Amino acid sequence: MIEDRITQITIEGFKNLYNHDINPGIIQIGKTNPEFRGDFTVVVFPLLRFSKKSPQITAEELGNYLLSNLTELESFEVIKGFLNLLIKDKYWIDFFMTGVNDIEFGIQKIKDTTPVIVEYSSPNTNKPLHLGHIRNNLLGYSIAEILKANGKNAIKINLINDRGIHICKSMLAWMKWGGGETPVSADMKGDHLVGKYYVLFDQKLKEEITGLVEKGYSKEDASNQAPLMKEAQELLQKWENDDNEVRKIWHLMNGWALEGFDRTYKRLGVDFNKFDYESDLYLLGKKLINEGLNKGVFFKKDDGSVWVDLTGDGLDEKLLLRGDGTSVYITQDIGTAETRYNDHKPAKMIYIVGNEQIYHFDVLKKILKKLGRVWYEIIFHLSYGMVELPQGRMKSREGTVVDADDMMDEMFLTAKKTTEELGKIENFTSGELEELYAIIGLGALKYYILKVDPKKNMLFNPEESIDFNGNTGPFILYTYARIRSIFRKAGQEPEDFLKILDLNKISLLESEKEIIKIIYQYPQVVKNAGESLSPALIANYCYELSKSFNHYYQDTPIFKRVDGDTANFRLILSWFTGRIIKHSAGLLGIQVPERM
Q: Cβ neighbours of residue 272 under 8 Å, at least 6 residues apart?
């Protein structure tokens, strides 16, 4: 990259001009501010301690040295101590030709086969996926794809939380009030039916608690003494004791939930390399708890419950096993981490989990450290912010969540309404329109969520996300479809124009150079996104490229009213732009349409 050449010759320049060896790390090179002439800017202020001269003089002397020794440099300007460098058009044209012939431009082949595990989704089988799960799934899928594009061996794992007290609540409600209802008899997706009974349990439990409070119990005692809660705890003990009848109902209802999840995943466009199940892993967690007891790093309380004391680590005491011997979340997470390390020997284990679990993962790492697992440091919790709606936060137990399937339905209908209002449905069959609305709706949903830094909370507005103008998914999709329409009008495929392209006859417009410069940044953007685990970098890059091309398209004739060589170049520039839009959108899990 040209930045490496600038860095190298700057180092040489300081040796020759000022007799100083400087570290490459202090050389700051960025894009030139649009209001000034130039492509790259060298910040000279960190270098003044070596030159012992003013910013203006240092920049002038370095600029002249670069002009004499950097063959790609056309000219330079010094603005208040900033050295702005203008690169020759030939460099950009040569880069363009190299890049357009590299079908894998911006993509690294797998260089390191050591796995990087990306865990995402991790649903509970007592309720359907909701809007928060959508952000989780989109982040996990995109991060794994970005890691692959950086040459990493990313393995996508879904940990199914299929056991525990919350699962028993749904089961108990169905056993008491279900009357044998099934997804078929209820005409409901299985995960929706299971979720219905989770909400019902909470409603019935609240009624019992209210009754006990009216009899004089404190709210805490009423919650613990409520018959329904006791029954759920007894059901969990039976499950852990492998009670045959309880296990039959568990298998039945889990099957309904998992089938429902699978349909949602396919519609959302996410996938997994492997599924882990908490029910298979929690026993190993229990075994490791016993190991910790034997080592003296855990302790038992009088009621038989097992704890770890983390007060010395600035935390508190943490429950590991209940007094009745049943597991808690941390139990299976300990077993899961151990299993994954033993099975894969990964370089990193990335957990895509909401920021309300920061404490949980801090505890997990400290427990593994106490158990002597030196690999605990490879655990990384990507703690993403919550998704809220204009009406506020969602609560699963109260049935106030925005269901993932319902959200995708709403996005489809919003895409349909907006597209029809814009009159963009000529020459489409009904089947093609259905597919188009699905692509636009999902593209809008995914882009709106992924363009936000993962660590930030976000407010999701469906109608705003579907806008065909501005920083939205539909704007990017429309840009790609517009590029494809150019070739339909031209009547030939891009490869045909590439064969007769003669760049020696091309004089770049500023708008063309701007597009090429944005494309040039793509490999570095992919690298940065992989290092920071932030799909937002890809999303906003894709928008900037789309915006730049749209300005160019509106102001510049592509193949009409221009000579053949210019038309060939502009067609290939459009094609290259479209390729990068399609690939960057693909890293976000977004499908692009051939026409809109």
A: 121, 156, 157, 158, 265
Could you give the CA distance from residue 220 to residue 230 in angstroms, rounded to a whole number?
A: 14
Which segments of the chain belong to CATH 3.30.1360.70?
A: 2-87
Determine the 3-state secondary structure of 453 from DSSP.
coil
pLDDT digits (tens, 9 = 90+) for 238-256: 999 999 999 999 999 999 9
- pLDDT for 81: 83
Check residue 399 and give its pLDDT. 46
Which regions of the chain carry the CATH code 3.40.50.620?
120-388
Domain 404-587 has CATH 1.10.730.10: yes
CATH number for the domain formed by residue range(s) 120-388: 3.40.50.620
Residue 391 pLDDT: 62
Which pLDDT does position 338 carry in this prediction?
96
Say what the pLDDT of residue 397 is: 43
SS3 37: coil
What tokens appear for 22 in the block? 């400087």
In the 8-state DSSP scheme, what is residue 159? Answer: E
What CA–CA distance (Å, rounded) separates 584 from 140?
16
Q: Which pLDDT value is given to residue 421?
A: 86
End-to-end, the C-alpha distance of the chain in Å comes to 36
CB-neighbour burial class of residue 511 (10 A; exposed 0-12, middle 13-18, buried 19+):
middle
Give the pLDDT score at 400: 53
Closest CA to 226 of 398, 236, 234: 234
Task: Kindly report the backbone phi and psi dihedral angles of residue 162, in degrees, each rounded to the nearest multiple of 5, phi listed first.
Answer: -110, 15
**Overall pTM > 0.70:** yes
**Which residues belong to CATH 1.10.730.10 in the chain?**
404-587
Low-confidence ranges of the chain (pLDDT < 70): 391-401
Which string of DSSP letters, residue by residue, matches 298-344? Answer: SEE-TTS-EEEE-GGGTS-EEEEE-TTS-B-HHHHHHHHHHHHHHHH
Architecture of the structural domain at 2-87: 2-Layer Sandwich (3.30)
